[in-house]
Design a protein that fits this description.
The complex is a heterodimer.
Chain A: H1 28-41, H2 48-56, H3 60-65, H4 68-82, H5 88-91, H6 112-118, E1 137-140, E2 164-174, H7 177-180, E3 189-197, H8 198-201, E4 211-217, E5 221-223
Antiparallel strand pairs in A: 1-2, 1-5, 2-3, 3-4
Helix pairs in contact in A: 1-4, 2-4
Chain B: H1 18-31, H2 37-50, H3 53-65, H4 67-75, H5 77-83, E1 93-98, E2 103-108, H6 117-120, H7 130-135, H8 140-146, E3 156-161, E4 166-171, H9 183-187, H10 192-196
Parallel strand pairs in B: 1-4, 2-3
Helix pairs in contact in B: 3-4, 4-5
The chains are: A alpha+beta, B alpha/beta.
């Protein structure tokens, strides 16, 4: 029911190493990996939820051994084959690559600034009315799984499953990743920031008043019993 | 429809060395007419030289200086930063959260690496690391200790896990002794990490 990327609260990861602010990319290929991924995304063959799910579906052994941008480039390679944009033979470097019918969608250098400035907002109109008000007590799904697709993408982390929290704010209605990641439509619904006492999530919270906030879709939540 | 992979994953057809892996994919997509290497140069230049944490520092400094700006930022950060030209990819839905004596805010994305690009640029390596993603929601003070930060015992921590497309900017507390300082001077005290919540603003 869970995947390797869902690591919030996990033990055993060791210390964190701060780094200077002016070090944007550690090596040239990191920068190249990011740019190739962004440019390929602009071809319009997948959305952000599909691409996140592609990275999450890497084998746990690969996910754990790959560095960050290796995950990106490997998820991208898998997506390119799955969507038919490139063939396995082309990826393996066999023969001459065929020109793509998508070539007219190629992002050119003069389009980059506009594409980055435009972004990709996730708010959409929805027929689903907000069920909760700020201050309401809610309980998250007992099992942090996609309700539409077995083993599918979801944004409810395991550590926050079955937890009781309080609605802090309503963000409006947003694309539901559980649907969008599987090309089942935007299925927009109300999105809330929900605050949980650390003691609701962890057996040994560091401080009695610590809290964790998650952004959660309405279908992840039930009213307090 | 979830696609589970094994050793016959398409990515395994690429060279195993990551630099060669990226190069092979860039070359293939270029030959197929799908990407323009000059566009890649432009993307990299944008995030190396034009979009970065100085954008966020300007927003924070202005919030420290101007109560009306601060109130508007806390009310609707997306509108306020858009007016400054800081709207864009990975910053479409912004929320600003303010540190106080009673509460310190920290931001993470435990599921991937969501981060407010138009205000802070590309996230640092540690923000994307397993250690930060795994630990900060459970033991924020031990994480702060890795950054050399100790909070007063009366200060509670609120960690924001960016599980949707909403992006969070921390407004650190304005340090004492900064009265009379202008926007540019204040910006020098506001590090990237202080706007994620793993640092405090520097003393003047």
């Amino acid at each position: 029911m869970t995947r390797v990327h869902d690591m919030g609260g996990r033990y055993g990861d060791g210390t964190i190493t701060p780094e200077p602010e002016d070090e944007v990319f550690h090596t040239d290929w990191h920068a190249r990996a990011l740019a190739v991924t962004l440019a390929a995304g602009s071809l319009g063959k997948w959305n952000i939820d599909v691409s996140r799910h592609a990275r999450e579906c890497l084998a746990p052994t690969d996910y754990a051994r790959f560095s960050y941008y290796e995950k990106w480039i490997s998820g991208l390679a898998n997506l390119l084959v799955e969507t038919g944009v490139v063939t396995r033979e082309e990826l393996a470097g066999q023969g001459d690559p065929a020109p793509s019918p998508l070539a007219d969608k190629k992002m050119t250098a003069d389009q980059v600034a506009g594409v980055l400035a435009k972004g990709g907002p996730a708010d959409r109109p929805s027929n689903t009315a907000p069920q909760f008000d700020v201050g309401d007590v809610v309980v998250t799904r007992k099992i942090a799984a996609n309700a539409l697709v077995d083993g599918g993408h979801t944004r409810l982390p395991v550590y926050a499953a079955g937890a009781r929290g309080r609605v802090l704010r309503l963000h409006g209605t947003h694309v539901l990743p559980d649907s969008s990641a599987h090309r089942l439509g935007d299925a927009a619904e109300p999105l809330y920031a929900v605050v949980f006492p650390a003691s609701e999530l962890w057996s040994h919270p560091e401080h009695p008043r610590d809290e964790v906030v998650l952004d959660l879709w309405q279908s992840y939540l039930e009213p307090e019993a | 429809m979830p696609h589970d992979h094994s050793h016959d994953d398409p990515h395994a057809l690429l060279p195993s060395d990551p630099a060669l892996r990226v190069k092979a994919l860039e070359t293939l997509l270029t030959r197929k007419g799908l990407i323009d290497p000059a566009a890649l140069d432009e993307i990299i230049d944008t995030y190396e030289n034009r979009i970065g944490p100085r954008n966020g520092a300007r927003v924070v400094a202005r919030a420290w200086l101007d109560p009306a700006f601060r109130a508007a930022l806390l009310e609707d950060a997306t509108a306020v930063v858009s007016d400054l030209g800081f709207y864009g990819r990975q910053g479409e839905h912004m929320v600003a959260v303010e540190n106080t004596e009673a509460q310190h805010n920290m931001v993470v994305c435990t599921l991937c690496s969501c981060y407010p690009w138009p205000l802070l640029g590309i996230p640092p390596g540690w923000y994307k690391s397993d250690a930060y993603r795994a630990r900060v929601v459970r033991e924020p003070r031990k994480v702060l200790a890795d950054f050399g930060v100790t909070l007063p015992s009366e200060t509670a921590v609120r960690v924001w896990d960016s599980t949707a497309e909403v992006r969070y900017l921390v407004i650190p507390q304005r340090p004492a002794g900064t009265e009379g300082m202008g926007e540019e001077a204040l910006m020098a005290l506001i590090s990237r990490d202080s706007m994620i919540g793993t640092a405090l603003a520097s003393a003047p």
